[in-house]
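Review session, final week

We close the course with one last complete record, chosen because it touches almost every idea we covered. It is Transposase, a protein from Leuconostoc inhae with 69 residues. Go through it on your own first, then we will talk.
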Amino acid sequence: MAHSGKSLKDIRTEYGVWTESVRSWLKKANYLDQYTPENVRLSAFEKENKRLREELRILKVTAVLLAKN
């Protein structure tokens, strides 16, 4: 329904519901689209990548400090 290309008015008429109901359904559909398994997995990878980059930065700083002594 959300990707059918129909207008809110067409959907409202077809299903016999209020326009606000259709808007609510579309908002919920977009919200749920964010939590597909692929998006959850991508988010986990991004979080891990951020953590690993920070660890690498710390290791580089530590290596420079140890090399000076």
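Two points worth writing down before the exam:
The radius of gyration is 24 Å.
The chain has one domain: 8-68.
Good luck, everyone.
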